[in-house]
Specification:
Blueprint (H helix, E strand, L loop, with lengths): L6 H24 L5 E2 L5 E2 L2 H12 L1 H16 L20 H20 L5 H31 L4 H8 L3 H21 L13
Antiparallel strand pairs: 1-2
Helix pairs in contact: 1-2, 1-3, 2-3, 2-4, 2-5, 2-7, 3-4, 4-5, 5-6, 5-7
């Protein structure tokens, strides 16, 4: 016989669902920032910062869920991507690899953040930067390169060269993610970065 569910478990579940929905909404807000179109058909947007923050602040599971919720809304036709794009067609475009990489990147970022030190605001910032570089930059670009090869029919060197245009901007987003994580750690020292309990 299963033990009864306590109110605290209900509260934790509701809080988790609220955070997932909040970060999906944050992705939509970041989509309001104008995109910059590159010649190969892949736009530069601010939404990859939301991917990094989801992994760092929510952890792998909830970060993944937030990105899946966001992509489900996009697939349903809501114009939530930068430039007011939405619908199934965006998953057939050259940028589809990056979109499908959002959940993967958030998961990897969160997984790394969970394993890195978070004892102080400074270590939180350093860990957030490292996790964002590996998950939100390297892993996301790996998915993007794969998409360019499959959908734009580029060779591996061509796709790699094309994605390099994003690297400086995404590196700046990694720094921004670290700064935001540092601010959260200072203002909310009990925040469970990477989905783990804060170290007392």
């Amino acid at each position: 016989m299963n033990p009864p569910t306590t109110p605290s478990v209900h509260r934790q579940g509701a809080s988790s669902m609220a955070q997932v929905a909040l970060f999906a909404a944050l992705m939509a807000v970041l989509g309001l920032i104008p995109k910059i179109d590159l010649p190969m058909g892949v736009p530069i947007t601010a939404q990859s910062l939301g991917v990094m923050l989801a992994g760092v602040l929510l952890g792998p599971r909830r970060g993944l869920q937030a990105m899946l919720l966001f992509l489900a809304a996009v697939a349903a036709g809501l114009p939530l991507l930068s430039g007011g794009r939405g619908g199934i067609g965006v998953f057939m475009a050259p940028s589809a690899g990056y979109l499908l990489g959002y959940p993967v990147a958030a998961f990897i970022t969160g997984l790394l953040m969970r394993r890195l030190p978070t004892q102080s605001p400074r270590t939180v910032a350093l860990s957030a930067f490292a996790a964002s570089v590996v998950g939100g930059l390297l892993a996301l670009h790996a998915m993007g390169v794969t998409g360019l090869m499959l959908l734009a029919k580029l060779s591996l060197p061509q796709a790699t060269l094309a994605t390099l245009a994003f690297v400086p901007g995404d590196f700046i987003k990694c720094l921004m993610c670290a700064v935001i994580a540092h601010s959260v750690a200072r203002g909310m020292p009990d925040w469970a970065f990477g989905g783990k309990p804060a170290t007392p």
